[in-house]
Write a structure and sequence with these properties.
With 278 residues, this protein is of the alpha/beta class. Helices cover 41% and strands 19% of the residues. Helix 10 links the parallel strand 7 and strand 8. Helix 3 crosses helix 4. It binds S-adenosylmethionine (SAM).
Length: 278
């Protein structure tokens, strides 16, 4: 613990290194997210609101409370710790590739629809961007969007966003696929019902076994595995390969790569991979 943070700093809630160890072990065992020592302050900041809400005065009390109230508190603990940063059409080259390469190839192969999974969908901007891209291309689709965090899934499902979230989105797309709020909903926009009906949201923990009824053509799992350790990443990539069609695609985040993790895929575009048969 060379760079151990000063746990004696005057704080609203007492937070000892042992509390950090105890709580991060619990969160890592459940989510796969590795919390390095350097995240001590971030951990405090994210969980402080839970202590405030529960009227507790120390993290030790909180860890004890969590132990004895798993049913009600555990999901709130996990929701407080996840990193949910996302945006509409984030990493736009992936949506261009979907429109310009994947959809035409599927059509040429006589496919009547695309099955897509947004794994780690956060507040929904990613699956809505996928849905808009496919709807604009007149490609029928089935789209599953999942996350471990039940709060972000509620937001995703509702599809209501402050207008600023749509700042970078093309005006024509905004008009076609979003409804501007009026009265009490002023300053917000909602994904139109025609699109909302076409996406299925589900809570799913990627580090637990999962099974889907049919394989997918494309899996988006962007900016999620970055927080996992190597064995967890390798096991997940293997399960993604098993969940994909023979020439299915896996889309990763800008700082992620399959290098050294799997030889079942070949890179076809920036952080975008296609499954290959051996
Ligand atoms: C940074 S966001 C990425 C959102 C979106 N994919 C993007 O790239 O904009 C990471 C998401 O992964 C989710 N996540 C983290 N660990 C997970 C796990 N074990 N199972 C499912 N989702 C997880 C988090 O809750 C969070 O919403």
């Amino acid at each position: 613990m060379g760079d151990t943070p000063d746990t004696g700093t005057q704080r609203e809630f007492a937070f000892e290194w042992a509390d950090f160890e105890r709580l991060r072990a619990l969160s890592q065992a459940h989510t796969g997210i590795v919390v390095p020592d350097a995240k001590f302050e971030m951990f405090y900041a994210r969980l402080a609101k839970r202590l405030r809400a529960l009227g507790l005065s120390s993290f030790r009390e909180y860890a004890d409370y969590l132990d004895s109230h798993k049913e009600t508190e555990f999901s709130k603990f996990i929701n407080a710790l996840t990193t949910n940063l996302t945006s509409f059409f984030r990493e736009p080259h992936h949506f261009a590739y979907l429109r310009d390469e994947i959809v035409p190839a599927a059509r040429a192969a006589g496919q009547s629809r695309l099955r897509v999974w947004s794994a780690g969908c956060s507040t929904g901007e990613e699956p809505w961007s996928i849905a808009i891209t496919l709807a604009e291309a007149n490609m029928p689709f089935e789209l599953l969007a999942t996350d471990i965090d039940s709060d972000v899934l509620d937001t995703a499902r509702q599809g209501i966003y402050p207008l600023e979230r749509l700042d970078g989105v093309d005006e024509r797309i905004r008009k076609r696929w979003f409804l501007r709020g009026k009265g009490r909903q002023a300053g917000k926009a909602r994904v139109r019902a025609a699109l909302r009906e076409r996406v299925m949201f589900q809570q799913l923990n990627l580090v637990r076994p999962f099974r889907h009824t049919e394989p997918f053509d494309v899996i988006f799992c962007r900016n999620v595995v970055i927080y996992f350790d190597k064995p967890t990443k390798m096991a997940l990539i293997q399960r993604f390969a098993e969940s994909l069609q023979p020439e299915g695609y896996l889309v990763m985040g800008h700082s992620e790569s399959l290098h050294g993790l799997s030889n079942q895929f070949r890179p076809v575009a920036r952080t975008l991979y296609q499954k290959q048969e051996h």
